[in-house]
Design goal:
Distance between the termini: 37 Å
Strand content: 5-15%
Helix content: 40-55%
Radius of gyration: 30 Å
Structural class: alpha/beta
Number of strands: 16
Oligomer: single chain
Shape: globular
């Protein structure tokens, strides 16, 4: 609580929430601080004499960060304090810059300044659920509670608390999978994620921790078959397994906003997720675990309508699905599985939901965990704020070089031949003619402005320098195509990366200089060993200078060899990296010094044609890569899911590209979009 409200007796909003919690059987322990650091009172009053936590959920009613308030935050201290207590941490928000009427009428919802101070900053502490619960009275300026929001906040706090106290064997968990587009057999799809293989891992973990998963299959295909019956099933096909048929009387009785949907969809049951008489819930129940298919959002032919039409709404089938989860299946929590579904994009305010916003109506009092791709913090933030979901980040598959095929591969082979025969006045020009011809066949004339005309050009009549220039530009374009990054396969939750996947990730991390950490990228160290600056090599490569294109390729191969040498030290017999051997701790350094030989990565670079590379200059980047490898293989995703389902505090972490910002790793943490440590950037300073 905020001390100023207590001192001035402007505490009606506090009293209202406390009364609601107590009416539900809770024992409320209010604390306040004389300053802006609440970590001290948390340590003093939320533990018993034996050091055991006495609270099951924390609700921060100040709307500010736990340590430092709006002024100067210490997020690491806050997260450490909250992790020690290890209970869900909710940060509710009082309206400050708007009246109730302004907020209700606003399509944005909460004022942007409040979003920055009282939503974004608490999220970095690990806060969830920015529910508006109070505001100021226009005439007196005193704080007053919003009754329906206070009720919702109390309900959700109690549900999170029950996840801590209820036996795992008695908890009911709803796993929600998605299907988009809904008419192409896409049930169980998510960005970069092998959904059913990951569900298999989650079910196994649930069983290990004492949850009742009934007769759930142990194989991916069997789980898929039980939910779909037909892996090619369409969303509106009876081939999907029907878990429940909800008649219209039951639907209208249990769904208080059902009448509001009739403006767009007419009376229930409608045509979507319906058999003509009942609303149909697709999925399969195993013991206390329900795997359900989130209905389509209804506007597949016109998706923008859902986003921009003020009167748009979910259809009856969508509402019936979440009504089923909460009031018929009686789920204790829902796990939304992968990036992403439609719940968080339903019509309503952007931030600071009201009781008429559809994400709020649909999720209602259900605690929600949301498995979200680590590289997509922007949409994960929408899920956090609009559907009250605690996110669990998952690793996107590593990006690997696209490689070459058909004519492009032939073109590279021709260039390789030319490199050996360029001085041969008989063979050299003939190969250049073949290179030009193949380049036209591969449509590279669209990318190379001054590619010679196929009909009139003859390399015999050209100078050696001009021939080199043509081949260099084609080679540069080929290298650019070959080095484009494409994601490798799909990620499976709980499965450590293969050695090849780890190499692909680390090679990209190793390319970047990180001057703020005193780290040079591997290509820069290699280039300096031959007296070149890597930026000059890149510039020459981009301009098609044949010698620099060749050198850039050679540096790239040497960098990859160095990374592979590091990873191979920790690769098991199955070709996967589960534990990382330490080369840079005191013990590893001691034995390396005794042996006196070159480190494996240094030797790999030497073997690739750079004998003078400095092992000393390589040390910082290789130590950093070893640290990153540990983060990549850390299996935090399954534990992160289980922490939320067990009503514990999930540590926060930034989201984004793990190549540019390895602090995103390890995954399996509660993702936030704002990373103040990255602002301002080095360039801005």
């Amino acid at each position: 609580l905020q001390k100023s409200h207590i001192n001035t007796k402007d505490d009606t909003h506090y009293v209202s929430l406390i009364a609601e919690l107590e009416s539900r059987g809770a024992r409320v322990v209010p604390i306040y601080s004389g300053g802006l650091d609440f970590s001290g009172p948390v340590e003093e009053y939320y533990y018993d004499s034996n050091g055991k936590p006495i609270v099951d959920t924390i609700i921060n009613l100040t709307g500010f960060a736990l340590v430092g308030g709006p002024a100067s935050q210490d997020h690491k201290k806050a997260a450490s304090t909250l992790k020690k207590l290890n209970v869900p941490y909710m940060c509710a928000v009082p309206l400050v810059f708007q009246s109730f009427e302004e907020w209700q009428a606003s399509e944005l919802g909460l004022h942007p300044i409040q979003v920055a101070l009282q939503v974004s900053l608490p999220e970095i502490d690990g806060a969830i659920e920015p529910i508006i619960y109070a505001g100021r009275e226009g005439a007196t300026g005193r704080s007053v509670p919003l009754a329906d929001r206070v009720n919702l906040l109390a309900d959700r706090a109690m549900k999170w608390a029950s996840l801590r106290t209820k036996k795992n064997a008695d908890k009911k968990i709803a796993i929600t999978i998605f299907s988009f587009p809904p008419d192409k057999g896409n049930v169980g799809t998510a960005a970069y994620l092998d959904v059913f293989d990951s569900i298999k891992a989650v079910l196994k973990q649930l069983k290990t921790e004492g949850y009742d998963i009934g007769d759930a299959p142990s194989e991916k295909e069997a789980i898929m078959e039980s939910v779909l019956n037909d892996p090619e099933a369409r969303i509106n096909s009876p081939e999907l397994n029907v878990a429940y048929r909800m008649n219209t009387n039951e639907y209208y009785e249990l769904t208080p906003y059902a009448k509001d949907l009739e403006e767009n969809w007419g009376p229930a049951p409608g045509n979507l997720n319906s058999d003509g008489q009942n609303l149909v819930v697709y999925g399969k129940q195993f013991g206390n675990v329900f795997i359900g298919v989130q209905p389509s959002f209804g506007y597949e032919g016109d998706p923008m309508r859902l986003l921009f039409a003020k009167s748009a709404s979910p259809h009856h089938g969508f509402a019936a699905y979440y009504t089923f989860l909460e009031k018929i299946f009686k789920a204790d929590a829902v796990l939304h599985f992968g990036t992403h579904g439609s719940l968080e994009f339903m019509p309503g305010k952007q931030v600071g939901m009201s009781g008429t916003c559809y994400p709020d109506r649909l999720i209602n009092s259900l605690p929600s965990a949301y498995l979200y791709a680590a590289n997509n913090p922007s949409e994960a933030t929408i899920a956090k704020r609009r559907s009250y979901s605690a996110t669990v980040s998952y690793l996107t598959p590593p990006a690997e070089n696209a490689g070459l095929y058909k004519g492009l591969k032939e073109l590279k082979e021709l260039i390789s031949s030319y490199q050996g025969l360029r001085e041969n006045e008989g063979r050299g020009p003939a190969i250049v003619n073949s290179i030009v011809s193949t380049a036209w066949t591969c449509n590279l004339d669209k990318d190379i402005d001054d590619l010679p005309d196929l009909e009139t050009y003859d390399a015999k009549n050209d100078t050696p320098e001009r021939r080199d220039d043509i081949v260099g530009k084609v080679y540069s374009q080929i290298m650019q195509i070959e080095s484009r990054l494409l994601p490798c396969g799909l990620h499976t939750v709980g499965v450590p990366p293969s050695a090849d996947e780890a190499v692909a990730t680390l090679v990209n991390i190793a390319q970047l200089d990180r001057p703020e950490d005193g780290i040079e990228g591997i290509p820069r160290v290699i280039a300096s060993s031959i007296g070149r600056d890597i930026n000059d090599i890149y510039r020459g490569n981009n301009n098609g200078v044949l010698a620099d294109v060749e050198l850039n390729d050679k540096v790239t191969q040497a960098s990859r060899a160095a990374v592979r040498a590091l990873v191979s030290q920790s690769t098991d017999s199955n070709g996967r990296v589960k534990e990382v051997k330490n080369f840079f701790d005191e013990v590893g350094g001691f034995f390396g010094g005794l042996i006196g030989s070159k480190k494996p990565w240094t030797q790999a670079i030497i073997d690739n044609g750079f004998p003078n590379v400095s092992e000393e200059r390589l040390a910082p980047v290789m130590a950093y890569l070893e640290f990153c490898l540990k983060q990549v293989v850390a299996n935090n995703e399954l534990p992160g899911i289980m922490e939320l389902l067990n009503g514990q505090f999930l540590m926060p972490a930034p989201g984004g590209d793990p190549i540019r910002n390895p602090d995103v790793l390890p995954t399996g943490r509660n993702m936030h979009a704002l990373d103040p440590s990255a602002i301002p950037t080095q360039a801005a300073v």
